[in-house]
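Q: Start with the shorter request: fold the first protein.
A: Done. Sequence, then structure:
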Amino acid sequence: MRTDVLSRGIFPSERRPTRTRMFRTSPSTRMQIHHAPKKGLLQRVRSGCGRRVRHRRLRRVVNRCANMAKSATERTLNTFRNFPTLTVGGMHVVDVLVERNVSGRVESVHDLFLTSVHGLTDNKVASLDIRELLSSGTLKSSVQFNYLIDLSWLIAQYPAKFREKPILVVHGSHGATSLRSDRSRFSQVSLCEARLDIPFGVHHTKMMLLEFEEGLRVVVHTANLIKEDWALKTQGVWMSPLLLPGKGDSATRFSADLAAYLRAYKVPALSKCADKLSEYDFSPVRVHFVASVPGYWTDSQWGHLKMRAILPRITEGPLVAQCSSLGSLTIKWLDEELSRSLGASPKLIWPSVDDVRESLEGYPAGGSLPYSHRVASKQPWLQQRMHRWRCDRFLRTRACPHIKTYARFSKDWSRCHWLLLTSANLSKAAWGATAGQRFLIRSYEAGVLFLASQWDTDMFATEEFVVPFDVPPQPYHKEDRPWVYDLPYTDKPDTHGMSWQPS
């Protein structure tokens, strides 16, 4: 970070009088510890250089902050993240604060979070960073399921003292060669390549199994394991309660469904993980596990047929599908097959060209929104159902969505019947499609379904629930164009003054 940015303040719109204490650790390094006048908690740490800072006074300040605060504020942690070389006792300051108080720092009634976005204040929504997920206990081992994986970056997100713990990485064929090459540098990492026998399928599941000495956590999310996905995009995370050793499944059969999914890989290492689930008490879990597994199926265990089996019958109210990739669709599949499972034909939230151009990343954000010109030109009817990406309620409008959600609302949008957070985009490969007497799925996907009935209510209040977009959604106007990632955009520069010329 440049020093001229530091001199203006990290949060210029939130400047207010503070009491300031100065610490000099060397002639070239100066630390400013700012205290908010009302609460007296550590708000900002600024460093004038990138060198490693180790100082007993700084350690005392951080220790006092962590002990005084019931939880470190999201603003504090976001500020610390701007200084990757700032360490206390060999640990990054974020790791210190998160380790002191993980359980109470962020509250979410439904265990549903958005990821933190660099440069944005998270005072309106429960949010989490990947470091916090991996620091939520004394780690023994972990399993990472994903599509895009930067192994070096992933290892660096683990707290230093846990980086040598066993990690099983479950991946697809995409990037497999690079992963195998990178794995040679990390003896603690084992790789498991998912079988993809059906053409055009991918391993798209984004999930973590985190075994701690204190218990187990299951995390279902929407982000690839790369830096960009956890920094500047809108992503969703469901983190289970800490599941203690014991016996018992949830009312939603979460453990049984997750175990069936793990065994569907037909890999010994994941079958062991499935067996391990029986050692933990899943009764605190309130969500349903909804997954897709490649194959030809005759039952309703996977894909949109699983949704059809779970969802209650709802006769009215809009359905919204919000995703980050669009496949080749047909009106019949969307309005008859998928709609029969989800209960209605969906309104589609898809970023426009201007949504991408005005985002934090500018046009490069559109590289994570694959909708090709070849596919778009075959289904112009879909644009009539499109709505702009807007998330002003959580200050995420400029953070392009990589999150995928499907939700059913009341007629006036004030209440929500259910919401699905998933890795599944709007495609037949992800959700499945009828093929004769069988049901064809091409890809691995995983999600969690929030049903209001599991929280002893008939519907969620939209304002109190983490619905990651503004409602009602804003339809496209005549001048709006849907983002198509392989077309050039040179008429207007993006937020960084750049144009878009796809290679």
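Q: Next, the second protein, separately.
A: Sequence, then structure:
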Amino acid sequence: KSLFVMQQLPLALFPNHTLHACVFHNVENGPEILPWLQSKDISVALINPEVVVDVFQVFIAATKAIQALDTESLMTKNVNSEIIFNLSPANNIGESFKKFGFQPPSSSLLLVVVDADKDRLLELTQLVEGTPATLKTLNNTYDEALVRKHYHIETHEAPAGDREALLRAAVHAISTKGVQ
């Protein structure tokens, strides 16, 4: 695998930061990835792609995470874990990780990292034993029932099978988290 499997997402609001992401399918070493990352103290967001309708969800969550980093108001340990927390409409960090983080035995994962240099990006892509894919594959990977469940989306908000409406409802939940 090469560095080119990681796609950079533009961050016009935060020119001093970078955001990279990649989807992996047929992941064979899922149970080993999390302990290895924790033992090396490597900061990366490993996301369950079944709850991501479109990369735009991740972009919104990452934008909120980077803003929290820059304003020193992170709710989690680091900016990458903050992305997973921000994907969730709830304020419970543990629940956010259970519902939106990568959980073995899932065979697909979405790897997202903020401010990684080329060496770190290469290390991360080589860590995953799976098939890298473009972010467009998220359009076919998400589980509509799971997205509806985790974001509490009713059919009057997004009719069954309406991907765009489902995405809007999920982004609305992410964007309004913490707003009163």
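Q: Describe the second briefly.
A: The mean pLDDT is 92. DSSP finds eight helices and five strands in the chain.
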